[in-house]
User: Which sequence fits this backbone?
């Protein structure tokens, strides 16, 4: 948990730099295939700072996340033994791998869409999509729809409520951080114990 908190703080610091947009792109890309911190952290900080650019930031997030998902698919498809297995082991999801395969067999695009929108770790599903050779165009369409819906929902809330939401976030930052991490842990829990 200490490592996650350090990574979270490191990600958040980028919002106050001139490199915030490239950092958002890189983070969104990396989170889709291997990095543990979701881009929502940086997206929220940037959108709160400049609400009128919220949808631009959501677009950057969406595009990078889908491209990162394609990279995750490639890792699962061609490099599962060399790289993908290490990522799965790092997150301790080895015991869920076969269940995810069954989810893909039964629900294909829906499995990607659910993982792309919810706190369930999307990276695990991108690797699995490649490893289980899910139809690539369906994978991409499901990723575009779910990831865009997630990031544009955040952007719309911040754009609509602007300054008040910023005050709310600043006032309840500690509580929101706890809720955010609880959702992150819930996503990992769902994969580890429910699937």
Assistant:
């Amino acid at each position: 948990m200490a490592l996650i908190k350090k990574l979270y703080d490191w990600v958040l610091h980028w919002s106050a730099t001139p490199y915030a947009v490239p950092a958002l792109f890189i983070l969104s890309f990396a989170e889709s295939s291997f990095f543990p911190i979701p881009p929502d952290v940086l997206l929220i900080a940037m959108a709160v700072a400049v609400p009128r650019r919220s949808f631009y930031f959501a677009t950057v997030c969406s595009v990078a996340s889908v491209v990162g998902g394609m990279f995750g698919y490639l890792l699962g498809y061609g490099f599962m033994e060399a790289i993908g297995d290490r990522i799965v082991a790092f997150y301790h999801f080895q015991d869920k791998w076969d269940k995810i395969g069954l989810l893909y067999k039964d629900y294909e695009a829906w499995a990607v869409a659910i993982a792309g929108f919810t706190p369930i770790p999307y990276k695990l599903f991108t690797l699995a999509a490649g490893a289980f050779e899910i139809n690539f165009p369906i994978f991409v369409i499901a990723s575009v729809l779910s990831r865009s819906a997630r990031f544009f929902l955040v952007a719309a809330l911040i754009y609509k409520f602007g300054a008040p939401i910023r005050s709310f976030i600043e006032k309840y930052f500690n509580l929101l951080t706890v809720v955010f991490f609880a959702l992150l842990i819930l996503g990992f829990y769902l994969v580890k114990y429910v699937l």
Q: What stands out?
A: DSSP finds ten helices and no strands in the chain. The CA atoms of residues 58 and 151 lie 5 Å apart. The mean pLDDT is 81.
